[in-house]
Design the sequence.
C-alpha cells in the first residue's frame, strides 16, 4: 500500500479514526477527523474470497495508516449483511464471509475500538453528516454499482432494522416473474436499475446482432463479454445513442424504485451514489420523470425543499434527486 497524504486544509479537528471500506475489489482506508476531513488515504486489492486473508489486509491497512497518525478507533464499512450490534458480518457474497466476527478479530489484533457497518449505511450516514444531505433530517441513500445498496437516515438516525439488515432496496420485487436475481428471486429492482443491467442489456443487443449496438461493440474490439457497466457509462457520456437509451431504461426503473421508497419512508432527499451515478443527468433525468409519474399522492403531497443541499461534493454523491416534483 502506498499511503497518500491529503493536502492539509487546516489542522485536523478532534480525535482521529481510521475508516476502512471493504469492497469486492479493493480495501480502501483513510485517516479521518470529526468534521469529515480525510488526512491520509491508502488502499490494497481485496484478497480473493478468503476471509482470513481479507481480515489480514484490513489490519495491514489500519496499521500502516496509524503509523502516520495517532488514531483512537477504527470504523469498517463492509458490503454485506452486518448484524444489529455492528460486530459480525452475517453474509457477504463477494467476500465469502458467513457469520464472521469481524469486529473482535480486528480489535484483538490492532488493540483499538472497532465498529463494523454495512457500507451503504455508512455512506448514507456520511452524506447526512458531511455531504449532500447536510441539514436534512430524513434522507435515503441509494448506491448504484454492480448491484444496488441502500441506507436510511430518519430524524438523523441510521435505520438498521431489527436484525441490522434494512435498506436492501435492490431486492424489492418490481416485476413478478421477471429477470432471475442472484438472491434467488425473480424481478428484483437490482435486475432493472444497476450497473449489471447496463452490461447485460448491451450484451444482449450485441449478441442479437442489433445495428444499434454496433458502435458499442466497436469500443470493446468486438468482444461482447467486455461490454460491462462502466463501458456503457463512458459511451453514454460520449453521446452514444444506444448507451443513452440503456440509461433511460435504468433511470426509469430507478424512478419507480424511488417512488416506492418515498411511499414507504417519505424522506426529504434521495442521494444517489455508486459508479452508475457518474452518468449524472443521463440517469437522473429519466429517473425524475418516472418518479413524478409513479409517486403516490403526486400533486397533493408536500414537496421537498426548494434548492440543492449545501453539501460538499463527494465521490459517493455525484448526483441527487428529490422526492418532489422539482428538479434538484
Ligand atoms: Zn434479488
Sequence:
Amino acid at each position: 500500500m502506498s499511503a497518500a497524504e491529503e493536502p492539509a486544509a487546516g489542522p485536523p479537528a478532534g480525535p482521529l479514526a481510521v475508516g476502512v471500506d471493504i469492497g469486492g475489489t479493493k480495501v480502501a482506508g483513510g485517516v479521518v477527523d470529526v468534521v469529515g476531513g480525510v488526512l491520509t488515504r491508502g488502499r490494497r486489492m481485496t484478497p480473493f474470497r478468503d476471509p482470513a486473508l481479507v481480515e489480514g489486509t484490513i489490519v495491514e491497512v489500519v496499521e500502516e495508516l496509524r503509523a502516520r497518525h495517532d488514531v483512537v478507533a477504527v470504523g469498517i464499512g463492509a458490503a454485506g449483511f452486518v448484524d444489529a450490534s455492528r460486530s459480525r458480518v452475517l453474509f457477504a457474497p463477494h467476500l465469502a464471509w458467513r457469520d464472521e466476527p469481524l469486529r473482535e478479530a480486528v480489535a484483538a489484533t490492532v488493540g483499538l475500538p472497532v465498529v463494523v457497518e454495512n457500507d451503504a449505511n455508512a455512506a448514507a450516514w456520511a452524506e447526512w453528516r458531511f455531504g449532500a444531505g447536510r441539514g436534512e433530517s430524513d434522507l435515503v441513500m441509494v448506491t448504484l454499482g454492480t448491484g444496488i445498496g441502500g441506507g436510511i437516515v430518519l430524524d438523523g438516525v441510521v435505520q438498521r432494522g431489527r436484525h441490522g439488515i434494512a435498506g436492501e432496496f435492490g431486492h424489492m420485487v418490481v416485476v413478478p416473474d421477471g429477470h432471475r436475481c442472484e438472491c434467488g428471486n425473480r424481478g428484483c429492482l437490482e435486475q432493472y436499475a444497476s450497473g449489471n443491467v447496463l452490461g447485460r442489456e448491451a450484451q444482449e443487443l450485441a449478441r442479437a446482432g442489433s445495428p444499434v449496438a454496433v458502435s458499442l461493440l466497436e469500443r470493446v474490439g468486438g468482444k461482447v463479454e467486455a461490454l460491462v457497466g462502466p463501458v456503457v457509462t463512458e459511451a453514454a457520456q460520449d453521446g452514444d445513442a444506444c448507451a443513452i437509451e440503456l440509461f433511460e431504461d435504468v433511470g426509469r426503473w430507478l424512478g419507480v424504485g424511488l417512488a416506492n421508497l418515498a411511499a414507504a419512508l417519505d424522506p426529504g432527499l434521495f442521494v444517489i451514489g455508486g459508479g452508475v451515478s457518474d452518468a449524472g443527468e443521463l440517469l437522473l433525468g429519466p429517473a425524475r420523470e418516472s418518479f413524478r409519474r409513479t409517486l403516490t399522492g403526486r400533486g397533493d403531497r408536500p414537496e421537498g425543499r426548494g434548492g440543492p443541499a449545501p453539501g460538499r461534493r463527494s465521490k459517493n454523491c455525484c448526483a441527487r434527486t428529490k422526492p418532489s416534483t422539482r428538479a434538484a
The chain has eight helices and 14 strands. The pocket of zinc ion is lined by residues 171, 181, 183, 185, 188, 190 (CB under 6 Å).
